[in-house]
Design goal:
By secondary structure, this protein is of the alpha/beta class. Helices cover about 45% and strands about 20% of the residues. The mean pLDDT is about 90. InterPro entries: IsoCit/isopropylmalate_DH_CS (IPR019818), Isocitrate_DH_NADP (IPR004790), IsoPropMal-DH-like_dom (IPR024084).
Length: about 375
Amino acid sequence: MGFQKIRVGNPIVEMDGDEMTRVIWKLIKDKLIFPYLELDIKYFDLGLPHRDATNDRVTIESAEATLKYNVAIKCATITPGWTKPICIGRHAFGDQYRATDTVIKGPGKLKLVFAPSGNEGIKELEVYNFTGAGGIALSMYNTDESIRAFAEASMNFAYQKKWPLYLSTKNTILKKYDGRFKDIFQEVFDTQWNHKFKAAGIWYEHRLIDDMVAYALKSDGGYVWACKNYDGDVQSDFLAQGFGSLGLMTSVLVCPDGKTIEAEAAHGTVTRHYRVHQKGGETSTNSIASIFAWSRGLAHRAKLDGNARLLDFTEKLEAACIGTVELGKMTKDLALLVHGPKVSRSQYLNTEEFIDAVAEELRTRLSSQSKL
């Protein structure tokens, strides 16, 4: 008797991507998802050509669909002391990413002006008096509402994981800007999470960003690290490489209520491999993060829908990935970590061979269950 497909009760939002990850994405769907699941996919092509063709309207439409259906799945050396996972929470709003910057030409005074909506007077701060040829200037912002939502989401996530939570800032220098992050996080913790964290045996702590980076390097892992926007962008890549490869890093965007998520691979589109693929060459691209984007998104769908069979499938899919690597079947990036720079072709699989190996391991795990 063949495998009876698992019916997924509610839709999934799929966001397709670019280059080599787009190639991998199709292989994952064809070999690891569609043979086992009967699901309604709301498809959005977020590949660059289509984003350009729609003037980025497709990006907004996919976000609106994610809010409607709650689950989206999006396509994109070793530090021996790390024996447990580390989760970086990036505050993906404001700061440098929504800043206004300018080139200053010639002497003059740079001022920061705030005009309140009410009848209060205009607040004016002198930033710098340029006396020479000029320079550059930057103004950035964030909002209490966004910082508070980030604090609530971070603490909720840490509580679910039963891991301690750290917030890193540079409040010794940016006393008011970063100090606001520190103050709001502390307020949210004191009023909503203190007793829950104590009961769970975990804690919240603020640390300076430089101290936190040093701690991350020497720690054994097992915590959630809440970062401001830029810090999260930089430190997540440092963290991924520290665990061996960007191809091993999952990323989940979580709304403050914890209900709506978007799962994706943390890496980019692997342009260098895609150029080889376009020329008909062989590639060995690590697809683990892309597979886990599917497993984590589907697992959240399963939890929202109360679909135990789907949840079991996602656990077996992740176990099949890990089991395949543990059997010595891996892509070149991982083989280099195991065998060193002189790794031979026989010691790693190409892109499709690896997904085939995961598919075979998944079939074995699913068939052993069906025989019980």
